[in-house]
Design goal:
By secondary structure, this protein is mainly α. The longest helix is centred in the middle third of the chain and has 50 residues. The protein is rod-shaped and about 75 Å long.
Length: 52
């Protein structure tokens, strides 16, 4: 019985860790995309200022 409980706990732990890892990867990817968009936007603004 105790073995079954441990197996369930470990399984839930693994699922939680995988879920959290996916969330962290998505957050990092989203942050990277936002950073690139911000960088391109600031470069476009700088170029617009220089072209004037």
């Amino acid at each position: 019985m105790e073995l079954l409980v441990w197996a369930v706990v470990i399984l839930i732990g693994i699922l939680l860790i995988r879920f959290l890892w996916t969330v962290i990867k998505l957050a990092a990817f989203g942050g990277l995309v936002l950073l690139i968009i911000y960088f391109v936007h600031s470069m476009v603004e700088t170029a617009a200022l220089f072209s004037l």
